[in-house]
Amino acid sequence: MRIGELSRRTGVPVATIKYYVREGLLPAGRLTSPNQAAYDDTHEHRLRLIRALLDVGGLSVSSIRDVLEAVDDRTQPVHEVLGWAAKGILGPAGVAADPAAAAARDRVAGLIERRGWQVAPESPPAEALAEALAALDRVGHGVFVDAVLEDYADAAEDVARVDLEYVGRHGSVEDMVESVVVGTVLGEAVLAALRRLAHVHASARRYGAAAVPPAADGSGAHSS
Amino acid sequence: MRIGELSRRTGVPVATIKYYVREGLLPAGRLTSPNQAAYDDTHEHRLRLIRALLDVGGLSVSSIRDVLEAVDDRTQPVHEVLGWAAKGILGPAGVAADPAAAAARDRVAGLIERRGWQVAPESPPAEALAEALAALDRVGHGVFVDAVLEDYADAAEDVARVDLEYVGRHGSVEDMVESVVVGTVLGEAVLAALRRLAHVHASARRYGAAAVPPAADGSGAHSS
């Protein structure tokens, strides 16, 4: 198909498609004449993936380029690629070197050991967790971590189990890698939105909401 | 304290502090002479909160301004403020009007009804969820949603319950509002990092990892 048809099918303007090609996110079309290129279904699919990572995942153009390079790299063994999803998307971690950061790192190492997780404490998601815990500590909400960390870890294990079951269903490594990327980035958006929905419901039950009638069981001060 | 001391304590450069004051994120110091201002602990605390929302939460300067305005607005009743956290941080939702979006909205409405959540289907987190589900559908991973949505919703309910218990512990509305903001934004970063850690562990068990010895129970093809 011509670039105009690709634009029509995906809703992405022609100028934006050309920008993605220049930035190396989207492979160039096959030249059919000196100034005309043909695109196919793989371009359409890739374009939808770029838009999803950009609009819903909130990734930057340069992060998307890194992610797609890894998707296209067939030389990596499956477990490396799966582990990579955490690396490539998180980017280089930068935990500051203050007492809050040191305490947070110890805490993450303790959590990993306690749960028997086969993860290096210096891996990018472990560093990202330490940075988030340190940030909570610095704003005086370190006690939030005490209150929620184990329950959060339980929930993360449950979610990761169903994610991996989904990934495991894909036959080819190519499909599997894409499903990891999609599941990591868009799954995070799904989980975050669900958590906020559940917050609204829980606070409506607990504190009463203007727009919604109170729960039948009363003020709900001790209800879940 | 002078601005240099505030900078030293928080690690935020003086020029950056001045920028936050100009942008309305941080209240100006109390003028002690025509070109000298005094800052106190409330400035230090606010500055740490700004950095946490920026660095770990990944919010933009304009989102942070909106969030802090709501934190400072004492006229709102508690449940409005709690519900607001989802609104203010998510920003205006923009779900496209294609068949994937319509199907996703129906799906979200069904989920809310099935779970008995007291949330309007047109509320911002519901729209954000619909947008994420539609994006998954558009990239051909709609089946991911079938596979994981109910388990994700279970996990979100568990997490929201412990979040609300934490928020409920705070006596003053001021503290409560801040804990909602911090818990929403930084809690999301904590949960996302934990999910990625749990992914690495689950894939190491399932597919074997180069850097980590295999689990004692063997290949782990059917282990959680």
UniProtKB/TrEMBL annotation, chains A, B:
DNA-binding recorded as keyword: yes
Listed PROSITE patterns: HTH_MERR_2
Alphabetical keyword list: DNA-binding
Record protein name field: MerR family transcriptional regulator
Record Pfam families: MerR_1
InterPro entries documented for this protein: DNA-bd_dom_put_sf, MerR-type_HTH_dom, MerR_fam
Keyword DNA-binding part of the UniProt annotation: yes
CDD domains named among the record's database cross-references: HTH_MerR-like_sg5
Domain (HTH merR-type) ranges: 1-70
Species, as recorded: Streptomyces lycii
Domain of life: Bacteria
